[in-house]
Amino acid sequence: MDYVPSTDSELEAMLRETGAASYDDLVAAIPPDLRHPKLRLPAPMSEIELAREVSELAYRNTPPGQALSFLGAGAYEHFIPAAIDHLASRGEFYTAYTPYQAEASQGTLQVIYEFQTLMCALTGMEVSNASLYDGATAMAEAACLALNARPGRRVILAADTIHPEYMQVLRTHLSGWETEIRTFPSSAATFDAAALVKAADGSVAAVICQNPNFLGRIEDMARAADIAHAAGALFIAVVNPLSLGLLMAPGEYGADLAVGEGQPLGIPLSFGGPYLGFMTAKKELVHKMPGRLVGRTLDTCGAPGFCLTLQAREQHIRREKATSNICTNQGLMALRACIYLCLLGREGLREVAEYCAQGARFASDSIAQIPGFSLAHPGPVFNEFVVACPIAASRVCAELEDQGIFAGLALEPFGGAANHLLVCVTEAKSRPDIERYLKALAGLAHRAMGRQVGIDK
Q1: CA 185 from chain center: how many Å?
Q2: Roughly what angle, to the nearest 10 degrees, separates helices 331-367 and 106-123?
Q3: Which of 62, 232, 367, 369 is the 20 to 30 A CA-CA neighbour of 128?
């Protein structure tokens, strides 16, 4: 696609229409460090030079498999069956963009319909849309839906145990709305029910909780849903879909909306994307859901077919009158999730979830036995937990990275203590992998504690 910049006359016309005196005035609302700088492009390269340059950039990344990774925090390394790559790489799938012409897109529409069906079965909810960009935007879109569904209520109430980056997206997404985002505190790394009862008043449109939460702990979602509903608010559950192989489904504890990141369902880490946001809801909210919904119908000959439903194409051009300005979906990622769920089935999904939970339990119990290390927040977890280290968590990460191990996520940049480390274990980690990690931590603890008592010179 060609890029044609605005001409001087077009810029002058924009300034006249907006009443801005200059281009700088026009973009004054954009923070200076976020404005697009003038491009300083290198000289043209030959094809072989460009290939070498791109390869050198790629080698700066360490993909899963080249290191032992215990990183998580919303992006998880899972085993991906080979059939997913094989099927998703078929030309009719990876070249398909958007099913505007439904009569020519039956295959794509059927895949999306099956994805919606599977997500409803997984979350225990009644309706699903055709996916969104990622988990964070799905949560933000759910908040917008709640504001539309509860007119007159302008407060979104969120637990402070939600992923901080999800909260950043929520604040950005609602920055143009006349609304207020409030948080309620946690106690022992789970939400404080008494604080939620106090905060949930008649101004609250929705209460949002994440399960498992950012610190890995399992929340009492049924209690949170009851408190939200008692205040007349909707309850939005942010969930890890793979955890639903073990944990109670949102539909079972009364969630009005269930959203989350679908990356654990057969989608590689890919340096941060593309990922997959999902949204499921109670049927009563279906007319307010953003994005696409695909339905199954009959054609004029009585044969089954698939079509876009409950949404006009004008949704994408109505701007402020639209339910949402989300106008596409991560179709290829939804396809991968659909294949993954079909391959594993109900029992296979439960087995993977059990491997994650058992591996995390073994790792956390073992780490707690290493002198100097302890569990920062003891209690039920799924596949992540926080470790209190004898030294700064950032230093733990740096020292183990030299040994080819990503130790986890240092939580200080996310508002945590300097020595707190978020550790993730999935089915991709074998018993020998975990034991290698434990040995590295034990060696680090010996060196660190030896220096502290003056015996390791």
Answers
A1: 22
A2: 30
A3: 232
- Pair 189, 219: CB distance under 8 Å: no
pLDDT at 291: 81
pTM of the model: 0.89
End residue of a domain, out of 340, 370, 399: 340
Query: Residues 229, 88: contact at Cβ < 8 Å?
Result: no
pLDDT at 434: 97
The three-state secondary structure class of 336 is: helix
**Would you state the structure tokens that stand for residue 317, as one six-digit string?**
């051009």
How many angstroms separate the CA atoms of 274 and 269, rounded? Answer: 9
For 285, counting Cβ atoms within 10 Å of its Cβ (0-12 exposed, 13-18 middle, 19+ buried), the class is buried
- Cα–Cα nearest to 218, from 209, 206, 230: 209
- Residues 106-156 have pLDDT tens digits of 888 889 999 999 999 999 999 999 888 999 999 999 999 999 999 999 999
Q: How many domains does the chain have?
A: 2
Omega of the bond prior to 212 within 30 degrees of 0, cis?
yes
- Does the CA dihedral 227-209-418-358 come out positive or negative? positive
The answer to the question of residue 44 being in a domain is no
The SS3 assignment for 407 reads coil
> Residue 221 half-sphere exposure, CB side, CA atoms within 13 Å?
28
By CB atoms closer than 10 A (0-12, 13-18, 19+), residue 268 is middle
3-state secondary structure of 125: coil
Rounded Cα distance, 229 and 226, in Å: 5
Tell which phi-psi region holds residue 216, choosing left (phi > 0), alpha (psi between -120 and 50) or beta. Answer: left
For 363, the domain range is 68-76+346-452
My answer on whether 321 and 362 are in the same domain is no
- Mean pLDDT over all residues of the chain? 91
| Of 148, 226, 152, 238, the residue nearest 193 (C-alpha) | 226
